[in-house]
Amino acid sequence: MGVLDPQHLLASFGAVGLFVILFAETGLLIGFFLPGDSLLFTAGLLAATPATSAAHLPLGQALIAGAAGALIGAQVGYLIGRRAGPALLDRPDRPKLQAGVRRAELVLARYGHGRAVVLARFIPVVRTLMNPLAGTVGVPAGRFTLWQVVGGLVWSLGVTLAGYVLGTRIPGIDAYLLPIIAVVVLVSLIPVAVELLRARRSS
Q: Which residues cross the membrane (predicted)?
């Protein structure tokens, strides 16, 4: 995974890195390729390692940094969409970006504002694009803020705590981080595959 390896990122930058990456993934369109799910899960695993371990990350710091990055990033993304959404999202020269926009629009149309904003948190790429898209299409600010906070907390705290619980139940789990992260990434892509399949069938 190179520089985007979650373990490398957390070992190098700690809770600050966790905050910055989640902020970028959920608030800036350039962050759609960042490993949000696997980073949160890995932070939970590292929080379960002994405090004397060089890779240890305090659970409180991981939870606060993850939640803050997810919530502040989403709100910034929404504000960007309100002010400059069409120019940023209408990019035929970026096919991956356009595919993500279509998936985000599909989720928004299928589930409505509240459920779509919450569900988007669990779909890679879509969680990056949903926030500026919500601002662009005029989702009321109060409604967006309410549901992005709900979804952001469930996602960031839930994934981090899942990693922590697994880490405390299985001694030496940090030795298997790479295969576990690979599984987390694959699982996180399932909703994308399901939505693409539905879109193809409906078309």
A: 12-34, 63-81, 144-164, 176-197
